[in-house]
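Entry for the shared binder. Reason: the reviewer on the internal report wants the predicted structure included alongside the sequence.
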Amino acid sequence: MTGKSNKYPGLPPLPPPFVREEPPIAEVIGEKCIGCDRCPPLCFYDSLFMRETPGHPFGRVAVVVPGKCTGCGLCFEACPVDAFRWVPGPRPALEGGRRA
């Protein structure tokens, strides 16, 4: 065994490289989503829901609510078709001139 995972082919190990500048959150790749509904029940932060999407081959796709996503990665594990990617999330609020 090489110790290399095939779950995220082409993706660097977690956390993503931009984690020092921006907190990572998940984003759905709509074209890849099969509307299986596996990710929303797994999200502890209620940051995922399914949206009816007329014209999409599966009729609906998962949607991430950026302000609720913590970047925990459970949705990546739940997704059977690797329809998630890391993107920079909202920056933490400033507290007294310093980042929280």
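Summary line for the report: The longest strand covers residues 24-28.
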